[in-house]
Amino acid sequence: MSLASPYISKTEFLNYLTCPGYAWHLRHHGDARPSPDEGALRRMREGHHVESLARDLFPGGYLVTSRNPARADRETRAAMAAGYTVIFQATALAEAGMIARADVLVRAGEAWHLIEVKSSSADPEKPRDVVRKHLNDITFQSIAFHNAGIPVQQLSLLVLNRTYRRNGSVDARDLFVRFDVTEDVRAAELLVLPIIEDAIATLLNSRVAAKCDCHRKTRTNRCELFSHFHPHIPERNTIYNIGSIQRTSLLPALDRGVLMMVDWPDDIPLGARQRRQVEVARNGVEVAHREKIAAFVQQFAEPLWYLDYETFQSPVPLWEGYAPHQQITFQYSLHRIGSDGESSHYEYLAESSVHDPTESLLRQLAEDMGSEGSVLVWNKSFEFGRNTEMAERYPHYAEFLHDVNSRMIDLADAVKHGWWEHPDFQGSWSLKQVLPVAAPEMNYKLLDIGDGGTASERWMQAVLDSPCLLSDTERSAVLRALRIYCTQDTLAMVRIRDYMLGLLA
Predict the structure, then answer these.
(1) Alpha-carbon gap, residue 206 to 413, rounded angstroms
(2) Shortest CA distance to 28 belongs to which of 48, 47, 8?
(3) CA quadruple 271, 276, 281, 282: dihedral, nearest 10
(4) Alpha-carbon distance 497 to 32, whole Å?
(5) Is residue 396, in this structure, part of any structural domain at all?
(6) Are 39 and 457 in contact (CB under 8 A)?
(7) Is the domain of 373 the same as that of 477?
(8) 65 and 49 in a common domain
């Protein structure tokens, strides 16, 4: 959208809700925003694909193709005048300063039924969470169309059906579920309208920059430009790094000018774990509760199997039996440490997109992993959950997978439960936060692929996407980097367990 445009879009409004300064800066200095990463670009493409499938539910619809706001508005009104009963990307310009594009607009007597299509998934019997997630979005649309003189009498969300399982070709009638949100939107409009008015006044004023207030929020609620607006706030050792800190505790400390964790006021309440973290930061020394660590490691039965999975998701299931957004395992790394300390490594990486990779992965895992010994993972709920799902899809491996789950121990428990504390953990039990303490030379930042999100995206590029997108050399490099990354995850657990044993010495 042109900077001279007298309208704000739904996206700009949602950005404003995240942070006024962020929304203003993107509108007037859009080049300041980091370019979308490969994962974000894929999600955009997937969203377009979902929207395209949704249109199959409304045959004979007219698609507004103009991207110019004024021309798109005229094209929409011309389609209405021509008698079209279904319009895709119907566009409304409101004199109040709003532009809205409806995914689907369906004639309903003298008015219209506005339908927003989302890639989110929901259980047909439990719409509350998905409605709440998108309520501000569709409420903006409703107000914009009303102000543009286009009457909307019904509003709906069309999302992916979480209970759907692919059976043959994808059928949009089964893939989607629709929720009527008319009453929810009408109830929200009185609350949302003044916020929209504030957003319009703020974002259309090019002379006065809005401020970023994300320093008043917790870390997970910051805007993407936080470091631009608040360069003086360090990434580590601040009160924002206190584990599970809430605004109710954060704000009183900030109002006193407290920034660093070691300066936390003693009279502002914290949970027991949080208070211990502050004390560890003040003392600057590692704390090991040896009795609890000893009891923990004594549970481990040899040989030890260190297991890590890599997965990907697709909003539209690619293979039989899968649900929207279901995690599909395409890789594992497995380290075996025997009673004599001898180490062996096994791995699997799917390199073909012809079939679901899960069955061949399970076939090899069942060959590689013995039936005795503890299975150590980091974040048990993830591997445990994937095993449960794979057992459902492949019953002939169910006994093996349930046995693996029965032997599974979460190595992260030592940190999660506070048995092992260190100032450098920064209130986190993430593997990448803990590993530098146990093995500082194992730096994920030095790897070509250094996190699970990138691993998933790069595998999809190398295996699922069109072969012409990557050369053979590039594809080989990606697969090699994936093996290195997944191997490091299990080797990291080996090193962390060794370090924990050292704490008992």
Answers:
(1) 51
(2) 8
(3) 100
(4) 43
(5) yes
(6) yes
(7) yes
(8) yes
> 421 and 327, same structural domain?
yes
Confidence of residue 466 (pLDDT cuts 50, 70, 90): confident
For residues 259 and 312, state if they share a domain.
no
Among 250, 285, 320, residue at a domain's last position: 285
Question: Contact, 488 vs 442, CB < 8 A?
Answer: yes
Q: Which tens digit of pLDDT belongs to each residue from 189-221?
A: 999 999 999 999 999 999 999 999 999 999 999
Whether residue 336 sits in one domain with residue 470: yes
Give alpha helix (H) positions in 108-165: 128-147
Count other C-beta atoms under 10 Å from residue 477's C-beta.
15
pLDDT at 30 over 80: no
Q: Where are the strands (E) in 235-277, listed by range?
A: none
Give tens-digit pLDDT for 108-118. Answer: 999 999 999 99
The CATH code of the domain that includes 414 is: 3.30.420.10
In a domain, residue 229? The reply is no
Query: Residue 4: its pLDDT value, please?
Result: 57
Expressed as residue numbers, the domain containing 168 is 8-203
Can you read off the two tokens belonging to residue 93? 């310009």
Do both 341 and 445 map to the same domain?
yes
2 pLDDT higher than 70: no
Distance CA 319, CA 219 (A): 37
Same domain membership, residue 274 and residue 309: no
Distance from first CA to last CA of the chain, Å, rounded? 64
For residues 166-177, average pLDDT = 96
Global pTM?
A: 0.93
What angle, 0 to 180 degrees and rounded to 10, lies between the N-to-C axes of helices 398-406 and 358-368?
60
Instruction: Kindly state the DSSP code that residue 125 receives in the 8-state scheme.
Output: T
